[in-house]
Model the fold of this input.
Amino acid sequence: MNTDSKSYQKYAKKHAPKSPIFRDCVCAFLVGGLICTFAEGLYHLYLFWKLPEDTVKILVPCTLIFLAAFFTGIGIFDDIARFAGAGTLVPITGFANAMASPAIDDKSEGLVMGVGAKMFTIAGPVIVYGVLTSVLYGVVYWIWGLFL
Amino acid sequence: MELLLDLLKAFLIGGLFCVVAQILIDKTALTPARILVLYVSLGVVLTAVGLYAPLVEFAGCGATTPLTGFGYSLAGGVKKAVDEKGLIGALTGGLTGTAGGIAAAIVFGYTFALIFRSHPKK
Done:
């Protein structure tokens, strides 16, 4: 084997382990992208079934939420999420999993303080900050409208 | 052919949203919960300044499926309600726009919590 320094560097670079962040990003991109592709496919399918567009816009995320909650229930979601990282977290599937997973895990604490309360451990903050920002936007938008 | 292009656009934009979040998780101390909060708020802000609607127009479910799309629904609901009912719409519009998703997550989460039992964490 040729061992002069240039070709050695080339050799070393080729065989060095790829940084985990690169691998993480590829997994997140592929899985996240596929979930969105699936959603887009559903969108076209529901339209093809002659459902009104307003209904389809609600039905598509609801279908994803149903599937994510189901896969959480049968225990597959965690396996996919470990591989996909942000790929399953960022789509609406992550929100559904964040509600279903603690609801299932903390069932032993009862139907009220277990299932009912723990469901909102992560979903709660998401709704709180989402609503806060949107109300702020609504007020600004209303004031803006007064001057137009 | 148009269908394939729509699917490809959804794949690319949806995937990119996930890559940004993955980099944030790997490079900063942000927990997944903080990422979700950040994404929802960012979705509202981007919709408010008029950047998100064109993205939804371009990528369809590639833009509405990531949690920024949840923010887009919140902001869209607020805008519509303020247009129709005035200032009170700022309070009613957001949750109206996202009611379907939130109710679905509650109903399905609850139902599957009754049916399935906890899996040991690996």
